Each structure stands twice: as C-alpha cells, then as structure tokens.
Amino acid sequence: MIKKRATIKRNITKKTCSEKKIAKLGNTLTRKKPTICKRACFAYMPDHMNFPKELTPLEITSYYGKFLNTSMATMEATLKKVGLWEERHQKVGSFSKGMSQRLNLAQCLLSDVDLYIFDEPTNGLDPYWVIQFKQLIRELRNNGKTILLSSHIMRDVVEIADRVAIMFQGEVKAYGTLPDIYRTYRCRTLEDVFLSLHVNPKNEPFVTHV
C-alpha cells in the first residue's frame, strides 16, 4: 500500500519529464526537451481526506471551487451527484466514513479534466454507492475521460477496467487486458494472478485449482 500510494503521489506531483517518449492519456508523445507537467489536466481522489470537521460540504466545495473557477451550479450538481446536497449545511465532523468518502469524491469531480485518478475510491462506501461509483466511472469513460483506478478490490477492477496493471513490491509485474493477463499466467481470476506473483516472483506460469 505504501509503495503504491507513494508511486501515485510521486508521479502526479512530478514537474518535469526528461524521457524522449512518454505515455500520456493513451497516446505516445515524442519529447526532445524536458516538459512542464500541467497539473490542471487531472483530478485526484486520495484514499482518505481529513476535511476540517467544523466545515460543511458546501463550504468545502466552495473552497476548492475558488481555485477551479467552478460555478455554484456545478457545485450543486456535484453534491447532488454524490448524494450530499441535502446535507450541504451539515458539519463534516458528524459524517460517517461513507459520507466523508463521497465528499472526497465530490472534490475530485469538481474539475472537468481529461484524467481522473482514484485511489481506493470505494473504501467505506455502502453497496448502493459502490454501484453508483461504478456507473459514474462508466459515464466519465463514455465522455472520453481517462480513468486511473488504484484498488485492492479485484471485483471492482474486473467490472470497470479496460486494462490492468498489477503492482508487486513497488513494481508493475503484469499489464494488459484481462484476457491477456489470464492467458499469460494461466489463471482465471485477478486474485489468482496476484497470488502467482506473490508465491512465484519469477513470473513462471501458475496453474490454479479448478
């Protein structure tokens, strides 16, 4: 978990990139000189946010909205989307874990950007909001957005990911579409693939039980 989170933060806060070829939003771009990374091109939802307990959802989204030039209409629509409009004047200190996580989601959705990064987004959500989150991801994808989802819940990954990267000991050990990964490791589930990497770090084929 620590290495994964550190990898995400290191890459999204990086200001320059000196590689001649970099992968950006699914395309390979050629760079001859280091380039400045414009952070405004993505939005980030960390796995946990410590919002000030004395503030309300409306005050918090208004705070973020000032940096993003977000209209009140957008803030209202975003809070409604995560089911917190009726609680917009309620102090965050009284929120459950799931409500706080939905507010965390709201601050990410305030931005209309090309890339959204979600780190353990369903942590603390009840089944209804897990379903709603997956539907939201599909809507973003259908609108041409790129989604980077980091999760330990393999079921969520299987349901919404087009391509999967499995990290083990701080390194990407497997990458590709689900059929490609299953075929390479002779496994039927992502859990089995991860197990094969854990007990068999040399990436030799791992045959699961029927």
Please specify the SSE layout and strand pairing.
Elements lengths: L1 H11 L3 E2 L3 E4 L2 E4 L4 E2 L5 E4 L11 H12 L3 H10 L15 H13 L5 E5 L7 H16 L3 E5 L3 H7 L3 E5 L2 E6 L1 H8 L4 H10 L11
Parallel strand pairs: 5-6, 6-7
Antiparallel strand pairs: 1-4, 2-3, 8-9
Helix pairs in contact: 2-3
Describe this entry's structure for a reader:
- With 210 residues, the protein is α/β, with parallel strands linked by helices.
- It has one domain (2-162): Rossmann fold (3-Layer(aba) Sandwich).
- It is built from eight helices and nine strands.
- The protein has helices spanning 2-12, 57-68, 72-81, 97-109, 127-142, 154-160, 178-185, 190-199, and strands at residues 16-17, 21-24, 27-30, 35-36, 42-45, 115-119, 146-150, 164-168, 171-176.
- A three-stranded parallel beta sheet has the order 5-6-7, covered by helices on one side. A two-stranded antiparallel ribbon has the order 1-4.
- Strand 6 (115-119), helix 5 and strand 7 form a beta-alpha-beta unit.
- Helix 2 crosses helix 3 (72-81).
- The radius of gyration is 19 Å and the shape is elongated.
Compute the average pLDDT. Answer: 82
Low-pLDDT regions: 15-38, 205-210
- Beta content comes to 15-25%
Q: Number of helix segments?
A: 8
Biggest sheet, spatial arrangement of strands:
5-6-7
Mind describing the biggest β-sheet?
3 strands, parallel
Spatial gap, N to C terminus:
30 Å
Structural class by helix and strand composition: alpha/beta
CATH superfamily: P-loop containing nucleotide triphosphate hydrolases
What name is given to the CATH topology? Rossmann fold
CATH C-level class is: Alpha Beta
CATH arch. level architecture: 3-Layer(aba) Sandwich
Q: How many separate domains?
A: 1
**Order of helical and strand elements:** HEEEEEHHHEHEHEEHH
Number of distinct beta strands = 9
Helix content: 40-55%
Backbone shape: elongated
- Cα-atom radius of gyration: 19 Å
